[in-house]
Amino acid sequence: MVVRTRLAAILIPLAFYVFSGVVGSYFVWQAARGQRGIEADQATRREMAEIEAKLKAVRAEEDYWRNRISLLRGPEIDRDLLDERARTLLDHVGKSDLMIFLPSVSSETTGSTTRR
Predict the structure, then answer these.
(1) Average pLDDT along the chain
(2) Count of other CB atoms within 10 angstroms of residue 34
(3) In whole angstroms, what is the distance from residue 43 CA to residue 33 CA?
(4) Taking the CB of the first residue and of the last residue of the chain, which one, N or C, has fewer CB atoms within 10 A?
(5) What is the pTM of this model?
(6) CB neighbour list of residue 99: distance below 8 Å, 6 or more residues apart
(7) How many C-beta atoms surround the C-beta of residue 87 within 10 A?
């Protein structure tokens, strides 16, 4: 009888501590690596930083094009920009323009994909 009481006095608290340790370990692991843990939060923040950088680049490009459009509209039009745009759309070259024809660059002449 005494052996059973001592054994129960040792095993019951030991089982409780082991169970508590396992449950605590599970929650600590979930806090660090779970679906909403620290690592997931850091990954989300990195992704948001990349998206914000892309958004900043897109807004800069939008501002550039808005500025170019504003030069073509309104009571006073930028003549150089209008001339450039018209020549591009119509594939027209002025009489006093100097044209320089460059050879086309292919992948074989650049040496990036040489075969031996």
Answers:
(1) 85
(2) 14
(3) 11
(4) C
(5) 0.51
(6) 93
(7) 13
Longest dimension (CA), the chain: 117
Which ranges of 1-116 would DSSP assign to H, the alpha helix? Answer: 2-33, 38-72, 79-90, 107-110
Can you tell me the distance from the alpha carbon of 33 to that of 53, in angstroms, rounded to the nearest whole number?
A: 27
> Which two structure tokens, joined as six digits, stand for 65?
């094009």
Q: Name the token pair of 12.
A: 């019951």
Locus of tokens 């070259």: 93
- State residue 115's pLDDT score: 47
User: Could you tell me which residue, 51 or 71, shows the higher pLDDT?
Assistant: 51
For residues 91 and 61, give the distance between their C-alpha atoms in angstroms, rounded to a whole number. Answer: 25
Instruction: Write out pLDDT tens, residues 62-107.
Output: 999 998 888 777 777 777 777 888 888 887 777 787 878 888 877 6
Structure tokens at 109: 């002449």
